[in-house]
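Q: Convert this sequence to structure tokens.
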Amino acid sequence: MLKNYLKLINEAGTDEAGRGCLAGPVTAAAIILPKGFKNEILNDSKQLSEKKRELLKPILENTAVCYGVSHIYPNTIDEINILNASILAMHKSIDKLKTKPEFIIVDGNRFNPYKDISYQCIIKGDSKFMSIAAASILAKTYRDAYMEKIHLEFPMYNWKKNKGYPTKEHREAIRKYGITKYHRKSFKQLPDQLKLNI
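A:
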């Protein structure tokens, strides 16, 4: 049983945020939590309000054995594709861990081996394992903060609110203003019936 095995070793959880966005980076986090760590609020970041995520962020940062967060930007996403960029972001986050994990648990079903460390992919892992849920919170909050920062440069896309996801409002802004250096050129920015001049 994986949960019993993980009680005996140093395990890192990793997850990403922003895979389905039209703009901005894909962001991943990796974290090692202390043994026996419990938090009643902690869950998959998508199940939590922004307020709860922001509340959890400093708790996780202060109690973690160690953590790492990495952004992979649109030019790299366009070059290597979003799946490879997501895995690269996870690898770079694990690189930043000050303690080497003995095992890695990954949210989702795709990962590439990281050095000589064993790993397991877990579908919906962010709702089953504390360390993956914690990684999902850090990835989401760090990415949101980045999107709020670049919103100031291009407020017409309202990234402060939509965080780069393909909302109707975001797509209308793309149709009206075109794309920016922060948009992913390899992604379908507009539905077929709306023509985009790049």
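The mean pLDDT is 93.
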